[in-house]
Amino acid sequence: MTISYTTEKNVLILIALLKANKVKHVIASPGNTNTAFIGSIQNDPFFKIYSAVDERSAAYMACGIAAEIDEPVVISCTGATASRNYLPGLTEAFYRKLPVLAVTSTQAVSKIGHHVPQVIDRSVIQNDIARYSVTLPIVKDNDDYWECEVKINTAILELTRHGGGPVHINLPTNYELPFNTKELPSPRVMRRFTSHVVLPALQGKVAVLVGSHKTWLPHEVDALEAFCGAYNAVVFCDHTSGYNGQYRVQFSLIAAQELLATKTYKPEVLIHIGEVSGDYPLLSMAGQQVWRVSEDGEVRDTFRCLTNIFEMPEHVFFSHYAKQKSATPVVNNYLADCQSILSQVRNKIPQELPFSNIWLASKLASKLPENSVIHFGILNSLRTWNFFELPTTVNSASNVGGFGIDGILSTIIGASLVNPNRLYFTVLGDLAFFYDMNAIGNRHVGSNLRILMVNNGKGTEFRQYNHHASYFGEAADKFVAAAGHYGNKSLTLVKHYAENLGFEYLSAKNKAEFEQVYQRFISTTPTNKPMVFEVFTDSQDESDALAMMHRLEQSPSSKARNITKKLLGQRGIRVLKRLLKS
Predict the structure, then answer these.
(1) Confidence category of residue 560, pLDDT binned at 50, 70, 90
(2) Looking at residue 390, what DSSP letter applies?
(3) Cα–Cα nearest to 436, from 447, 456, 451, 421
(4) Which of 305-310's residues contact partners 24+ apart within 8 Å by CB, and which partners?
(5) How far is residue 438 from each of residues 415, 429, 432, 490, measured CA to CA in Å?
(6) Rounded to whole angstroms, how far apart are CA atoms 136 and 170?
(7) CA–CA–CA angle 301, 305, 220 (5° rounding)
(8) What is this structure's pTM?
(9) Angle, CA 276 vertex, CA 273 and CA 278 arms, to 5°
C-alpha cells in the first residue's frame, strides 16, 4: 500500500522522530484537527494504531499498554474539550511514571481567546499531568523547523528520563491538503546518556568548548587534560571559562576574522560544557555535531547541531572516554595548528589602534597584577578583552547568566568583599556604570576595588559597524543607543561623585593622558581608597578599532574575491554573476 503523509512539516517531524525512537503504539480518538497526524500514519505499517472514541478511556488504555510493554504509547485527540478528558488517565500515568505521550491537536494557537469554535487554551496544565508540556509551531521557515526538532526531541527524551512519565505535545494544524508527501524528513535525533549505560563511540577531530564555568577543581582539570591528551583535542575558552591548562586556546580573535576561512579549525565533534558564553564569535566554532555534557541533563541546543546529551559530571565523562583510548599520548597537531594561527594573527594587531576599549585592553590585559580578579561588562567589554590573554593567575568573570547591564558594579563589589587583600577590577561602559552607580556608595566597599569605566556617552554597542542598528547611522543615538544621558560625557560628574564617596579618581581623554596615569590603576601597592578610572572614548573610534580587529587575516580565496571586487566594481560583479547563471 502506498503511504502518503501530510504536507504539514510539524507533523512530519513528529512522525519521523517517533519512528527514529521506535515509538509505534498509538491510540487515536476521532476528530478533525488530528487528521494530519492520524491520516498520515494510518497506512504506515510501522505504527500499531488502536481506536478509542472516549478520550478518558484512551488515556487509561495507554496506561495499560505502557505498563504491560514498558514502552512509550502515544494518544491523539482533536480540539475543543477532547484533551480535558485525558486528565484522569494522565494523572494515573504521572504518579506511576508511565511513558504516555499525549498529542493534542489544535487549530492555530493565535486563535485562542477570539471565540473561534473548538479552540481552547492548553498553555497551562496541572503540575501532576505531564513532566513536560510544549506547543509546536506551524513550520514556515528554518527557525520553526529547528524549534519543532528541539521540542519534539526533548519531549520524547522526557518520557523515560528519571524514571519516566507522561509528556504533552500541543500540535497545531492548518488543515493542509492533499496528503501527497512520499518521504519523511530526516530531523536530528537526540539521545540522552547517563553514567549507567553504554556510551557512544567518539571519533574524529574533537574540541571542547567551555562556557561560563564554576571554579575548576584539580581532579576536574586532570580529567579534562587526560581526555585532550587521548583524543588530540583542544579546549576553546573565553574569559568566563576558568580553564587555564595546557590545552586552552583563547580563540575568539580567530573566530571573529571576517576574511579568514575558519572551517579548518572546526572540530567534527564539539564537546560543550559550562553555561552561557558571551563570546559570540566562538559560538561559530561548532562542527558537524555537538555533545552536551552537564549534570542537569537538559537539552541545550546552542549551536543547533546537538546530537547527544550526557547527564553526568564533566569529570566522569572525560575520565570514561580517556580510558577508552590508548594510554600512549598523541602529538597534538590540532592544538599546534590553533596556537599557530592565533599567534600569527595576534602579531598583526597594529600598534596604532584607535583610542578605544580595544586599545585599552591591548595595553592592560597582560599587565594586570598576579592573582587579581577582573569582571567584564557584557557585550563590548567582554568581547574586546577576549581578544587578549590575561595572566594565568588572574581570575575573570562576567554576568553572562542573565546577560544584563544592571548589576555589574554590584557583582564585583560583592566579590571584592570576600578577599579584602586581593585586587578586584572591573571594565564596563558608561550606561552600565550609571545603571548601577548607587552600588559604589555602599559603606562596605573596600580599597581593593578598581573600576575602569569606558565613557563614550552612549551604548556604543549599537553603533558598531557590524551591529544591526548601524543601519540607522547617527540616528541610532537618539533612542537605540541612548546617547546624551548622565551628563553627556561630563568631565566632572563622575569625578565629583566618586571622590565624594571616598574613591580615588583617575581619567584620560587620549592615549597620552592614559599613559601618564594607568600605572597607578594597576599598581600592586596597597592604597587606602578604591579607584574609579574614567576613560573617554568616541563611538566611531570604537567601531573602527573593532573592524580592524576583525580583518587582521584573510584566506587566499578572500584575497582573490577582494581583488575581483576592486577590478570589476559592484556593477561588474553583478553582471558577472548574471552571466555565470545563464
Answers:
(1) very low
(2) P
(3) 451
(4) 305/188, 306/188, 306/190, 306/272, 307/188, 307/189, 307/190, 307/191, 308/190, 308/191, 308/192, 308/193, 308/200, 309/157, 309/190, 309/191, 309/192, 309/193, 310/192, 310/193, 310/194, 310/199
(5) 17, 15, 12, 18
(6) 6
(7) 65
(8) 0.92
(9) 120
